[in-house]
Amino acid sequence: MENFFAQPINIGNLKLKNRIFLAPLAGVSDIPFRRICQEFGAGLTYVEMLSANAVNYVNEKTLRMRARHPSEEILGVQVTGPTPEDLAKAVERLDQENFDTIDINMGCPVKKVVKANCGSAITKDTEYMSEVVAAVRAVTSKPLSTKFRIGFDRVNVEDSSLCSVKNNVEMFTIHGRTAQQNYSDAVDFAKIADGINAGKGYKSDVVTVGNGDIFDYQSALRMHEQTGCDAIMISRGSLGNPWIFREILQGKPVHPTVEEWLDVILRQLQYHEEHYGDNVPTTRMARKYFVWYAKGFPGCKTFRNQLQQVNSLKEARTLFKGFAATLPKTLVRYQGLSFKEAQHIKHGYDPKYDMDRKLDRGVGTECME
């Protein structure tokens, strides 16, 4: 029987090759990382979450974040904003740009974002939520989606789903925690299913996406079987592990050899240099990827510490090649264990904490502009 996740799917008139999407991770989902995930099979990727205010003020950094590489066949954009008017104005701009689909972020729980009435703050009030989606729907004919959590400080996932489908979105994504919960709380599959059933009950052809705690094929399958979602969205599970897309597509564990691991890292370094150049600021921005990739082999703690000090991509290449040369060629990364188990990650661990927010593009920084 064909792997469910490998089957194509349509979002409105947009045809996707499979049902495995990469989340629009702030500070992470840039061109080099997206290209790697696309090469491993991601059926849909997004630029990093954008602020409507930054789009409307023609913020220079936000313009750079909207770049698209010629190799990217399908690309979406996600935006959040403080008012329906601000969001609609921003989406009018984005609608004219080179994106295939547009998503409204109503799920980001970061305090600065919420304080600005963006992200998950939108879901506090059902009527307001509906106004937001209706305002955006009125200014774009591109496939439109929403991404939200099962609630803010209380569960209202069915309301969020209905607000979305009643305003004619083609897709919605549900993350299985409230905005007030953290990663120590398990994803609530039953609540995701409630949201999906509410949306499907009103509009049967809406595409539904499950998100949260997907680290391998088994957790992807569990998300689908327990929620009935049409597709899945990968977030933390992709950090340092773009192989997750191949694993889910193949339906079996994928643990790269040293050679395969090094090849992917060097390729992302190449893409990073092509896009940003090799200089101190962009190397510091890339350190988070180095740290994520540097896990899964014996003796990697010291190696990770060295990577956190590099100031050039050339230096990073040298370190990665040198470390790989110390490992047996037959060694397999995370051999015999799932990605999550092998990292000894407690349930609440978030790899994004490895990002240096003083040097990197932080979540939500544009919302206050």
Describe this structure in words.
The chain has two domains: 250 residues, TIM Barrel (Alpha-Beta Barrel), CATH 3.20.20; 97 residues, no CATH class. It is an alpha/beta fold. It is built from 15 helices and ten strands. The strands form two sheets. The protein has an eight-stranded parallel beta sheet with strand order 3-10-9-8-7-6-5-4. A two-stranded antiparallel ribbon has the order 1-2.
In short, what is this structure?
Residues 22-318 form the DUS-like FMN-binding domain. This is tRNA-dihydrouridine synthase. Helix content is 41%, strand content 13%.
Strand content: 5-15%
Return the domain count.
2
- Total helices: the number is 15
Quote the distance from N terminus to C terminus.
51 Å
> What is the fold named in CATH at topology level of the largest domain?
TIM Barrel
Largest sheet: 8 strands, parallel
Rg from alpha-carbon coordinates: 20 Å
CATH superfamily placement of the largest domain: Aldolase class I
InterPro entries: Aldolase_TIM, DUS-like_FMN-bd, DUS_fam, tRNA-dHydroUridine_Synthase_C, tRNA_hU_synthase_CS
Catalytic activity: a 5,6-dihydrouridine in tRNA + NADP(+) = a uridine in tRNA + NADPH + H(+); a 5,6-dihydrouridine in tRNA + NAD(+) = a uridine in tRNA + NADH + H(+)
Cofactor: FMN
Domain DUS-like FMN-binding: 22-318
